[in-house]
Amino acid sequence: MDSGSYRINVERTLAIIKPDAIHNLKEIEDVLLKSGFIILQKRRLQLSPEQCSDFYADQNGKPIFPSLMDFMSSGPIVALMLARDDAVAHWKSIIGPASITEAKENYPECLRAKYGSSDLHNALHGSESLHAAVREIRFMFPDTIIEGGEATEEYLSKNVNPILLRGLTELCKEKPLNPRIWLSDWLMKNNPYQPQICDGVMDEN
């Protein structure tokens, strides 16, 4: 296979563990890591109503807006900057739809079906698009410089290159008849997606 046909589209996205699910943080982090995400930064904070209003400015004017402001400022949250290939779409698929009824009926394995209790108290937030992710990451992590090339290089150096090098070394030792299938099986058995949390210290605001 031509190596030029491979392209890893590494992205960053923002996840928020909302006040109603913060006690499930460890379980949710485990899901993230097993799903191939790197947790680049993590921050525990309590938003003021004014900060909530700024963050959810696109929801202003909707009937749910006042209740959303009250809920999101009612207790601490944890904001996570995540990276992996197609991070935005993958995180959205893991958390499931915002409607708890739809989540529980149609996507019972998603995180909102598991941890959410209503459309308002739906446990988690995920950026809707790459554009939204950039804005939301800058909001939660104002000192962060977001560069696509940097994210890709960091992701590859931490997740892909070391395990691939090990696999290729073993491949040379084994000299199997079908190296492509052997390497694929080896990578699956050795779980190439075992990222570590880069910033394990949560700052308090």
TrEMBL record:
Example GO molecular function: hydrolase activity
InterPro entries: Dpy-30_motif (IPR007858), NDK-like_dom (IPR034907), NDK-like_dom_sf (IPR036850), Nucleoside_diP_kinase (IPR001564)
Protein origin, superkingdom: Eukaryota
Annotated compartments: Cell projection, Cilium; Cell projection, Lamellipodium; Cell projection, Ruffle; Cytoplasm
Ranges where the Nucleoside diphosphate kinase-like domain occurs: 10-148
The keyword Kinase is annotated on this UniProt entry: yes
A GO cellular-component term linked to this record: cytoplasm
A GO biological process held by the record: CTP biosynthetic process
Keywords linked to the UniProt accession: Cell cycle, Cell projection, Cytoplasm, Developmental protein, Hydrolase, Kinase, Metal-binding, Nucleus, Transferase
Primary role: Major role in the synthesis of nucleoside triphosphates other than ATP.
Protein family per UniProt: Belongs to the NDK family.
Protein name in the entry: Nucleoside diphosphate kinase B
